[in-house]
Fold:
Amino acid sequence: MNVNKTLNGLTLKGESEKNKDGSIVINGKLEGMVEVECVKCLKPFKKEINEEVKFKIVKPPYEGFDEEYDIIEQEKYDLEEILKSEIESIKNDYNICDECKNEEFNKNF
Ligand SMILES: [Zn+2]
Structure:
């Protein structure tokens, strides 16, 4: 099945497939601009996202392990929830704005 869902500027595009055991795998891409906060000056800025993703959506409780896929536990398959949690994790990344990045860069010389 085709996946194409956008939430708050972030788009998940790709292909989903249902496995025999009921799990769903998504092979796709996250693209877009997400508003994040700079860890240094706390100013919001837009971060460009462009990454390949492999998700496996399983019903909790899940005790397996998967080397290839990021496991997402969901009672009910919900793309919007997946995008929400991806946005959350992007916001929790080490995000630094261009200005602060340049400042750090210049300090090293
Ligand atoms: Zn900054």
User: Anything to note?
Assistant: Residues 59 and 77 are 9 Å apart (CA to CA). The chain is about 20% helix and 45% strand.
